[in-house]
Amino acid sequence: METNALGAKKRNAFNFKKWSRSRNGQQTFIIIAFMIIPLLLLFVFTYLPFGEMVKFSFYDMKYVGRRTWVGLQNYKDVFQRTDCFAALKLSLYYLLGGVLQIILALYLATILSFKVKLGNLFKGCMFFPFLINGIAVGFIFKFFFTRGYVFDTVLQWCGFSLQNLPYWLKDQSVNNFSLMGASIWRYFGQNMVLFIGAIMSVDGSMYEAAELDGANKFQQFIYIILPNIKSIFVLNIMLSVSGSLSAFEPPYVITAGANGTATYFVVMDRIAHTSQKVGLASAMAVVLLGIILILTLLQKLFFKYVFKNAEDDNPKKFKREQRKLAAAKGGAAQ
Amino acid sequence: MTTKEAKKRGILWPIIKYISLIFFSFVALLPVVSCVNTSFKSMDEYRNTNVMQLPLNGIDFSNYVKAFKEANMGRAFINSGIILVCVLVGSTIIGTQLAYVLNRFKFPGNNLIRNLFLFATLLPGIAMQVPVYKIMHDLGFINHLYGYIIMMMGTDVISIYIFIQFFENIPVSLDESAILDGASYFTIYRKILLPLLKPAIVTSMLLKGVGTYNEYYCANLYLQDKTKLPTVATSLYTFVGPRGSEYTLICAGVIISLLPALVIFILCQKQIYSGIAMGAVKG
Hints:
A: globular; B: mainly alpha; 2 domains; 15 helices
């Protein structure tokens, strides 16, 4: 054995220069060959447009034709026009929807993570809306909310009378809630699947131990499940904040932004592709991107803070012990 | 007293549990099921009966045939098929190769490249389409299937991260022994790692496939010639506008468009769930 290993070492040492040169060469070659296409695509469809977007935001321009430099005028417009920055307040609806969605998803995920009859069927039913294409979702909900159609009929079964019901997509006092509902319908299954994954990874013996100690299901949820899925829970909340700022699909496909449902991105889409004010649309995109980046940064800091809190116990104990030790030493010295 | 309470709770909780599950499954299915119901009705019947009433003539597929023809869905399915095959093959090759290089080799810029891809996920897709449209226009990619396909193959960070996570669990010793046997890096990637990566490839293909099949915003933007270049999702645009109230046809079209996704979902539930969970870790 030993002689064999020695032999191998010798051979390696002998050929090392040549070996290293050819392998390194091969490595460099494969790295370049395998990365050139993805990096090119990343550049052409992400970073080049990103740079262009920032540049466009300083011009008055259309997709084709001449452009004129206007400085910060587009940015001023974003904050001064009544339809641009003000549209961000619609995000509050989607933020509320996002929070409700997470609570609902967590509740159902908790149920489905334990033994339930037909669990997979229920899970499948609730997840499936996530897989329907956006245009179809738009039609489904236009149909669903039409006066006297599906939603109204169900409410009538529950004892409401049609005269007292609003026009769900036209009435400005409720239509954003209707869209919020559609958004929850579409995405809560996805959150639920995420939470089920997280809850399943909790060590099962913890529940047994808790049950032996007489903890009920609610207590198990509060003291075992919640702490264990804390990070994915916080992540989901954060995602729903940035998601609500960039809410786009429900209003775009269901109401096309009519009757006061145009969110920031729906307005931006209209400005960019219908009125072809590319500069203004770019400025809008840059402003929202800035906001999202700041939020992401805050989220990173928040995570750091949470992590610190979790590890705090140990350093404190350590300090206390050190203090004790020091006191003991001091006592000994005196 | 306490045992009684415990018993009560023991009965109450399962009841609440199943009521919640049934209620929310009902809510999730209701919009789709009511659509299926309407798709079987004739126009007269649709006008004169409540939408929730079951169709009188039972199951009648004539609306489906009509919707399929009028929305040019035969063409749409062919286009979507071409797009799917090209995008899936392309992005799988690109994604696995990139993940292989990023996971197996240390080189200056490795971390930078990972971060560039991560940062790209922060940029909201809709906003980016404003400058991307200009670039697509300048490249002459608009109204060509290949242009749309190349764009869709681009940065799919989620599957790249699924691949990288998977590579991390394949021992490097496997590569090393192959190197000792004189295999080139490409052979290692192609003959050893790619076959091992199969589960991850299936997962990412399912996610990417459903995403690509359902994509409508860019398809609408970059494939403007709706008679020649509809995809299944954008073919539904036929019913936007003056025809927007022919719900018997619209519902049939909607159901046709979501059938493939439904079939894939029923066949591959597990992989789709695990893909969603894996993608979220880094997303």
